[in-house]
Amino acid sequence: MALPTLTPEQRAEALKKAAAARTARKELRDAIARGDETIPAVLDRAKSDQVVGKTKVADLLKSLPGYGPAKVSQLLEQTGIDASRRAAGLGDRQRQALLDALK
Description:
This is Integration host factor, actinobacterial type. This protein is an all-alpha fold.
């Protein structure tokens, strides 16, 4: 499937929109790292908040203090969540398993 041809104005707008989304996801991860946001609260907003919903669960977990790539991979494997899963794509059972594992 070929990508649509964009005018320079459309391309600039798309690039600006993508940069804003990346910035919003970075701010979310920083808020989690500071302790301003909790994983349960963030996951509650995943279905309604597009920024949260499109953020990978692994990235959210790596934002937690003390959770690096190895610990996050182990946690995701333990809960049966694919490493590429986004927050909005978590099922109820996966979400609950993740929250139980974080306690």
